[in-house]
Design a protein that fits this description.
By secondary structure, the protein is of the alpha+beta class. The chain is built from five helices and five strands; from the N terminus they run βαβαβαααββ.
Length: 139
């Protein structure tokens, strides 16, 4: 699985608010890989757009999934989420981020990260891949 966006780190408080508004926090992915020299190197390469071959070597992470079916409270939250400005979409071969909807891509292309997140949400689902909580490696 891959997200539409990557948010390197989310705070506990932002995560609590998002989930209270209807976003879903996934189970841990790649827990068997762990955090080690090799997985940190794969993530570092991916985040700066270098090719990684495939996602198999990525360290543990989770997904914050926001579905439009959750309703207007979640949409309202996403429109004001300060962390949306920190979203990235590295063009790393092998990272395989999900394709954005046309409106979300247009917003992203004009530099509107929050708009891209909201448009993707309104399209049906916006999935954000997260590797750290409060700057601490996900486990």
């Amino acid at each position: 699985m891959a997200g539409h966006f990557i948010l390197k780190s989310i705070s506990n408080s932002d995560l609590t608010i998002a989930t209270s508004k209807g976003a879903k926090w996934s189970v841990l992915q790649h827990g068997n890989i762990g955090w080690n020299t090799a997985s940190r190197a794969v993530l570092s390469k991916a985040l700066v757009g270098q090719p990684i071959g495939n996602r198999d070597g990525l360290p543990p992470h989770r997904y914050l999934e926001s579905k439009a079916s959750a309703g207007s409270e979640l949409e309202k939250y996403l429109r004001s989420a300060g962390w949306a400005d920190l979203l990235i979409r590295p063009a790393s071969a092998g990272l395989g981020l999900r394709e954005l909807s046309p409106k979300a891509k247009a917003a992203w292309d004009r530099g509107d990260r929050t708009g891209a997140l909201v448009e993707q949400f309104l399209h049906g689902t916006a999935t954000v891949e997260v590797y750290y909580i409060n700057g601490t490696e996900m486990s």
